[in-house]
Specification:
The complex is a heterodimer. Chain A is mainly alpha-helical. Chain A is 69% helix and 4% strand. Chain B starts with a helix and ends with a helix.
Chain lengths: 717, 522
């Protein structure tokens, strides 16, 4: 079977699952007429209903629900199989890129490019499989499949099961579209689509305001990045006349890097990177990711750790031809990456919610990936993305298993001593924590070590970047093992009721943990350090596999000279720091558990600042949400009513006023004059009226009188 | 028969109205059924337009021409091009949907109501089909009357204020427009010795720039009030809020497009020198960008669900006018597509308000909350409409906005940078509205027993959902339909636009862009 020509089917299988859930999901999984969480507690009380707890409420579910558990993970499994088939066949190709174009999706009209040439605003519905997208689809479908399986157990007691799996399938569809797209516009479709699914899944428990708030925050913050991304896409159109990756690379080929200053190429690359800071939670747009933990834990594992948030890293690596021409933007990328890494790690120090620690850890690790990309070591960025997908997904799923065991408790201060009660969870999480801490032999060690080495040795790198990365490595080991020690060692600090119910998760959840734990070890061995010259070439497979993707110049620039002795030394230092971090955590949280509080007290404003995440959310809220958006809306709304509409109403009022005045004028002056004249005439005529009465007798009398007077006059005369 | 297709499309609703008037007003059911039949027939007869339309032909098709008032040189002159084809289809589809949605919402004077609606259909189709300026003007004014009554008789509490405001405001604009028309008319006579209102004849008239400018502003008042562009928009929230649901749907979906259509059909081709005049372009684009941002921000402070949707129209129409005055092929094509999209998305949003208004008789956002628990299908449809309106890719809104923004970017990238903030704010106010009405817990006992969508309501939404998805996934036919008329427009305003220059090497392209960027604009 030719899987290469069938790559367009890979995203469609999960889409099929999603559509099926939207169409018949409610039949397979009949929902209670009104879920117990639907009512406001006061209202429920007033109606005499049970206010409904979020956990511990176990309604009876229809047996057809099992079909959902088969269909939705099944579609991802089929995608995984097709992905494996396609990647295997890709490996056999001489030219490591295969494009399948279905039709012209965005069939726009001609436009003038930057130089005045006429281009066409068009984008395919087309897919590109090359080593880079190959890695991505394998990660997405592999990790995605096991997280689906895990969710069967984790979400088993929840209402809205069909909805959850529908969203999850929809997410996998968009994510696969994102990584398989053959052009920027279609990548953007997936990009926004995964954002939508992220919104839907963060707000899965939509009766909770905090959940829907977090969903909105995620969507809107991502939209800020997307706005810049859109402009970046237009820049690419204007520069190259196309958005197809292969054609863009072709068009950029032969350009010299913008070393003279910040030019058009740098601007383009920067706009794309702003998009990436949104999706991949980097400074200044990282704020949505920690709040995204409102979603169910499998969502955090899949979307907010393993796949979606790495889309920005993927996109930058995909655009390596462009970035390599824009050294200034590369420096921005590396700096933002390093700063985010250390900044987020510092916040992770003081968080007590197990998922929030992991969220900041994700932000920090994504910073590492951008650091690698920024120094031109794109393959290392993807390598870290690859290893991180395993161990971070595992950490989240493990934390989910812990939360599951603790009856929904997420506060590590109320955990402790779980080591023996949930051993599988413990051992797998320990593997992941060793991996992220960078202990040799575990996957994270290989990728992180390579990042630090590249930061040091790449022509784009610097000692400062390396130093920040190395300090962050120490911090990472510390906060991760702080999490481990607080959760699994010491006395159990839960209440008796919870304690009694602590139980290991069912196999449907622990098997995925075990598989990911294996990945958290093995994944790293595909890219061992160059200094480990004693290992055969297949241990460097990852780098070689991705080689065809990079534009030659960029690739070599990012290599740096591999001096074995120096590399060994730096490696030794970072391992030392990792071990130190773990030991410090052990000292503080196992041997002297009273110390952290005293340190916190002694630290002055530092600890509250860390605890409150450097008050960034408060500042953003004040400036942008309440200030710019809501405040601006209120001011403009008043302006609209008072001034703009006031003008219209004023014009209406003026018209009415004018008509009243003219009415008055008309009645009193114009008509008044007329009536005055009439009155005057009437007045004048009044005496005369007595003469003309119409009475013949009167006339006769007057005539008689007149005649008498006349006669009398003549007689007297 | 077939050579009078446009007349048939134009007069089918009117014929339906006359039959309706003969029906006994006591038989309400019969009246409703007949109104739906007539509206659906209006849609059916318009379908052949799509199939008979030749996408590769230049100019107007299916032309009909007969003398009307010979003494004035006015003709009964109809014709269709890609732009009017899409708008006519939008009219017939949403017209039917609006009438279907009135089924249970209208419970008094049904006969008069449906008669007004059918009359309005003919008026609107006439606007989009007329190629004679006087005929256009007559249809333009006819449309005012039924909408005035629909708002004024079947509207909400402040219906009289809203109806009168709507009527007088738009009438005032069209009087000025008439002055512009007459100027053109007499100018043409002065040059050619013939009195005519035919658009293609008037296009031959050569006018000095200053006169073109005056006529442009006269037209502008008429069209900008109709669109409505900032700052002429305040009649819209009142009219929308007070109108019955179907009235709002038609008002948003079609009536506003008469304004944008006016710019496309008259201002640009008849006054090409004024349309490219930098001062005018900057004012028009400036007002459009203000509308996009201003409309969206004002949405954030609304506590009336319907008013919020009305202000979102201001923002969306800002995109449409921005596209037009970017004077680029993609800006113009995107604008027309966005006009269709706005008809679909905002039409749906108004229908959505209508569904709960019919159940609860309030439009205040705070009266709702948690509706998704009791009305899941409704919540799904609302989410769909919201995402379509917010421009989510694979739905219609994205295609329009993205294309318009590209057109604006080509003209001046600063414009695009400002306008693109509209997509951020658009997501904000829509998601927030959705949260306040659909999500959270139910806190109002009145919302506990709200029934979900019934079959008729599904029938109202289904065509719009499908249409939104179609444009989003496969917009190619729309671009093909628009390619020729848009190219003609651009060629008219910016002659020589399409003459391909020798493609330069990308390096030169980068340098060329660089220098343009330093130069600032254009």
């Amino acid at each position: 079977m030719n899987f290469l020509d069938a790559i367009w089917l890979i995203p469609l299988f999960p889409l099929f699952g999603a559509v099926l859930m939207f169409l018949i999901g409610r039949r397979l999984d009949p929902q209670p007429e009104r879920s117990p969480e639907a009512l406001e507690p006061e209202l429920a009380e007033a109606m005499g209903e049970d206010a409904g707890q979020e956990h511990g409420h176990h309604p009876r579910f229809a047996p057809t629900r099992r079909l959902i558990s088969w269909i939705c993970p099944g579609t991802v499994l089929v995608s995984l199989l097709f992905s494996i088939g396609a990647v295997v066949q890709l490996a056999g190709l001489a030219e490591k890129a295969h494009q399948v174009i279905l039709y012209t999706w965005l069939a726009g009209l001609p436009f003038h490019m930057g130089d005045g040439a006429v281009g066409r605003f068009a984008a395919d519905l087309g897919f590109l499989l090359d080593p880079l997208s190959g890695v991505m689809i394998l990660v997405v479908t592999f990790v995605g499949f096991f997280i689906h399986v895990y969710s069967i157990g984790y979400m088993g007691h929840e209402t809205g099961y069909y909805r959850f799996f529908g969203y999850l399938n929809l997410f996998v569809f968009f994510m696969l579209t994102l990584v398989l797209a053959n052009n920027y516009a279609l990548l953007f479709v997936g990009w926004e689509g995964v954002g939508l699914c992220s919104y839907l899944l963060i707000g899965f428990y939509f009766h909770r305001k905090s959940a829907s708030d977090a969903g909105i925050k995620a969507f809107v913050v991502n939209r800020i990045g997307d706005a810049a991304f859109i402009l970046g896409i237009f820049m690419i159109f204007a520069l190259t006349g196309t958005v197809r990756f292969l054609d863009v690379n072709q068009a950029l080929h032969g350009l010299s890097a913008e070393t003279a200053g910040f030019g058009v190429l740098s601007l383009t690359a920067l706009l794309l990177f702003v998009g990436a800071t949104g999706k991949s939670a980097q400074i200044p747009l990282y704020v949505w990711l920690p709040d995204a933990m409102e979603g169910p834990t499998p969502v955090s594992a899949l979307i907010h750790a393993a796949t979606m948030v790495t889309a920005g890293v993927y996109m930058v690596a995909r655009s390596n031809a462009l970035y390599s021409l824009a050294p200034e933007t590369m420096a921005v990328v590396a700096t933002i990456g390093a700063l985010t890494a250390i900044f987020a790690a510092s916040i992770a120090f003081a968080q007590n919610d197990i998922k929030r620690v992991l969220a900041y850890s994700t932000v920090s690790q994504l910073g590492y990936m951008f650091l690698a990309a920024g120094v031109g070591a794109y393959w290392v960025a993807i390598f870290h993305l690859f290893t991180h997908a395993f161990f971070k997904a595992l950490l989240f799923l493990g934390s989910g298993s812990v939360i599951h065991a603790m009856g929904g408790e997420q506060d590590m201060r109320k955990m402790g001593g779980l080591k023996d009660k949930i051993p599988t969870t413990f051992w797998t999480m320990a593997v992941a924590s060793l991996a992220i801490a960078g202990i040799p032999g575990f996957a994270g060690f290989f990728s992180k070590d390579e990042i630090l080495w590249q930061a040091w040795s790449s022509p784009y790198g610097s000692k400062a970047l390396w130093a920040v990365g190395t300090v962050t490595a120490l911090m990472t080991a510390f906060y991760m093992w702080r999490l481990m020690y607080m959760t699994f060692w010491g006395e159990c600090r839960a209440d008796e009721h919870t304690k009694a119910h602590i139980h290991e998760s069912p196999p449907v959840m622990t098997v995925p943990l075990t598989v990911l734990a294996a990945g958290s070890v093995l994944a790293g061995w595909l890219g061992v350090p160059k200094a480990w010259a004693f290992l055969p070439g297949s241990f460097h497979a990852f780098e070689h596999w991705l080689e065809p993707v990079w534009v030659a110049a960029a690739h070599e620039a990012g290599q740096g000279a591999h001096e074995a002795a120096l590399e060994w030394a730096l490696m030794g230092l970072s391992v030392l720091l990792a071990v130190a971090g773990i030991l410090i955590a052990r000292y503080l949280y196992v041997q002297r558990p009273e110390l952290p509080d005293r340190i916190a007290e002694a630290s002055g404003p530092l600890y509250p600042a860390l605890l409150n995440k450097w008050y960034v959310d408060e500042i953003y809220n004040f400036l942008f949400v309440d200030g710019l958006a809501k405040g601006g809306g209120r001011v403009l709304g008043r302006f609209d009513q008072a001034i703009v509409d006031g003008g219209v109403n004023g014009a209406g009022w003026m018209t009415r006023f004018a008509s009243a005045v003219s009415g008055w004028w008309d009645t009193w002056i114009v008509d008044g004059t007329v009536r005055l004249i009439a009155f005057a005439v009437k007045m004048i005529s009044y005496p005369v009226r007595f003469l003309q009465t119409g009475f013949v007798q009167q006339y006769a009398a007057v005539i008689l009188a007149g005649m008498a007077v006349a006669l009398g006059y003549y007689l007297i005369k | 028969m077939s050579e009078h297709l446009l007349s048939i499309v134009l007069f089918t609703p009117l014929a339906g109205m006359f039959v309706l008037l003969l029906l006994p007003s006591s038989n309400r059911k019969l009246i409703r059924v007949w109104a739906n039949i007539a509206a659906f027939a209006g849609f059916l007869v318009s379908l052949p337009l799509v199939f008979r339309f030749d996408r590769s032909a230049e100019g107007f098709q299916m032309v009909e021409k007969a003398p009307w008032i010979p003494a004035l040189g006015a003709h009964y002159y109809l014709g269709i091009d890609g732009i009017s084809l899409l708008l006519v289809m939008l009219t017939t589809v949403t017209g039917f949907i609006a009438i279907l949605s009135s089924w249970s919402a209208i419970d008094r004077y049904e006969k008069q109501y449906y008669a007004m609606f059918l009359l309005q259909q003919t008026g609107m189709i006439g606007v989009f089909l007329s190629l004679d300026f006087l005929l256009f003007y007559v249809f333009w004014e006819i449309v005012l009357v039924p909408m005035y009554f629909i708002i004024g008789v079947w509207g909400g509490p402040r219906k009289l204020y809203a109806a009168i405001k709507f009527f007088l405001y738009t009438l005032a604009g069209s009087v000025l427009m008439l002055l512009g028309i007459l100027t053109l008319y007499f100018q043409h006579h002065a040059q050619y010795g013939v009195y005519t209102f035919e658009i293609d004849a008037l296009m031959q008239t050569a006018m000095p720039l200053h006169l073109e400018r005056w006529v442009f502003w006269a037209f502008f008042i008429g069209f900008a009030i109709k669109v409505p562009m900032f700052p002429f928009h305040t009649w819209l929230p009142d009219a929308h809020t007070e109108a019955p649901t179907a009235g709002s749907v038609i008002l948003a979906a079609v009536l506003l497009k008469m304004g944008t259509y006016g710019f496309l059909r008259f201002s640009l081709p008849l006054l090409p020198k004024a349309a490219i005049d930098p001062w005018i372009v900057h004012v028009m684009v400036g007002l459009s960008i203000v509308a996009i941002i201003y409309g969206a921000l004002v949405c954030l402070m609304q506590d009336d669900w319907k008013k919020l949707v009305a202000y979102s129209s201001v923002s969306h129409l800002g995109f449409c006018t921005l596209g037009i005055f970017s004077l680029t092929p993609n800006g113009l094509a995107g604008s027309v597509i966005q006009q269709i999209n706005h008809g679909i998305s905002t039409g749906m949003l108004f229908l959505i308000v209508g569904v709960v208004y019919e159940r609860r008789h309030t439009r205040l956002i705070r009266e709702y909350g948690g509706l998704a628990h009791v009305m899941p299908n409704y919540a799904f449809v609302f989410a769909f409409a919201m995402l379509s309106s917010a421009g989510l890719p694979l739905l219609n809104g994205f295609i329009g906005e993205f294309t318009i923004l590209q057109g604006a970017f080509e003209a001046n990238r600063v414009w695009a940078a400002f306008a693109v903030t509209g997509i951020i704010l658009g997501a904000s106010y829509l998601l927030w509205l959705y949260q306040r009405t659909m999500l959270g817990r139910i806190n109002n006992p009145k919302n506990l027993k709200l029934p979900d969508l019934n079959l008729r309501e599904w029938a109202v939404f289904a065509p719009l959902l499908v249409w939104a998805l179609w444009i989003g996934v496969y917009p190619k036919p729309y671009f093909e339909i628009l390619e020729k008329p848009v190219a003609q427009l651009v060629e008219r305003v910016r002659p020589g636009y399409f003459e391909a220059q020798a493609a330069k090497a990308p390096l030169e392209a980068a340098q060329a862009m660089e220098s343009r960027m330093e130069a600032g604009i254009r």
